[in-house]
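Hi team,

Below is the intake form for Protein FixC from Thiocapsa imhoffii. Please confirm the fields before the structure is written into the shared record.

FORM ID: S-0412
PROTEIN: Protein FixC
ORGANISM: Thiocapsa imhoffii
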Amino acid sequence: MTPNHRCDAIVVGAGPAGVAAAITMAKGGLKVCLIERGRLPGAKNLFGGVLYPHALAEVIPDYAERHPPFERPVTEQGYWLLSPDSVVRIMHKSVHYKTAPTGAYTALRARFDAWFAEQAVQAGVLLITKTTVTEVVRDARGRALGVATDRPEGLVQAPILVIAEGVNNLLTQSLGLAKGDLPPRYVALSVKEVLALPAAEIEARFGLAGADEGVAIDIFGDATLGLPGTAFIYTDAKAISIGVGLLLEELIVHNLKPYEILARFKAHPVVRPYLAGATVLEYGAHLIPEQGYDRMPDLVGDGVLIAGDAAAMVDAVHREGSNLAMTAGRMAGETALEAHRRGDFSAAFLRAYRTKLEESFVLKDLKQYRRMTDFLDSTPHVIGTYVDFMNEAALRYFTAQGMPKREMEGEILGLLRGRRSFFGIAHDMMKLLRGLRG
Ligand SMILES: Cc1cc2nc3c(=O)[nH]c(=O)nc-3n(C[C@H](O)[C@H](O)[C@H](O)COP(=O)(O)OP(=O)(O)OC[C@H]3O[C@@H](n4cnc5c(N)ncnc54)[C@H](O)[C@@H]3O)c2cc1C
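The structure came back. Fields below:
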């Protein structure tokens, strides 16, 4: 390899994982090259999205003074269980959500990623945009030496690489660390729109007192035609983020078009009034890796560390991904710093990265929910059946018909038994419990 540039470390991808890794290494004194294929960091990225600043605070302790472009603090969150004509809402509102750093904020990736990458540049990172890494260059023994890019004279050399390339993990696959292409049953496709609406209108519709309050709602049931998947509605400063996501396999098997499902969701009688008069600012789609702990790629190779979506670090149960990515990126950065100190970039030494992750919430949570995708895959009826039942049960429960309550309770039980046998219910509950307990 005759390099055109030399660095102490190369990071591929300027998403949350890559930027966290780059900042950590730059603060530790390394010369870091952060390579991003987008025109700007964030240009290619999309999420729901709710950001959890606990992970950001570990990378940039004074992040609040640097004015990150958050949209609104999340002060109310929960679930809507949507049937074709009604909804059961399970929402939680608390003043404690306003207390950073334990809170959460809505954010738009185009703005947040650009800000985060700017913090990396201020820490001394060399950010190279509009450049795609096409190959990891290795020696005869398979040790990473650097990367080739799509630029003329684009060979960059470094003894260690952090690959944070996101869900389309082509480089990770080329190193033999991922177990091939993601099968459609383990990857979700999400489509999202950002709808412009005046702040006062958002606050009136969602019952918010002002710009320092916001809502995050995850929606199950009719939003995804009862199939395994979720929809979401999050309030931004002057917009609403709305989207739906389903496992690719469900889209293929049922011949569904994601944008049609989103249009149908937006037209739902419960949802439509929140969106009235809003205009589309942005539209996008993105994949989410949901293969879980047991099918994650290997996290290290000789001279290589893998972080974030590239290694399937997504907790779909709690819609967390950006915080897992930032934490993993930071830990990859810390491990790279130790490797530099020791002059040892072997996979054997870099395994310390996996140990750090095993001791953190990242792999503990992924391990706990390791069976969740299989649970949904093996019980595709579960969301539709129980969400519709809960809506019908609520209608009976809240409607006075001059009927003795015991009879009403019997009717509700009958509604459930009409959908699922006693053994069917016990079976679903057992599987759900296993999915949640690992
Ligand atoms: C619809 C949706 C909703 C979500 N909602 C939430 C949420 O509410 N909260 C939450 O915490 N998480 C959420 N997530 C998950 C979260 O977005 C991801 O887990 C997180 O972005 C992963 O960060 P990353 O840095 O690993 O990857 P990414 O953010 O995907 O970044 C990867 C970067 O690498 C670049 N890249 C890729 N290949 C190359 C290459 N060869 N050369 C150079 N650059 C390259 C890309 O352009 C990109 O900038 C959501 C995801 C989706 C899709």
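SUMMARY LINE: The chain has a mean pLDDT of 94.

Thanks, M.
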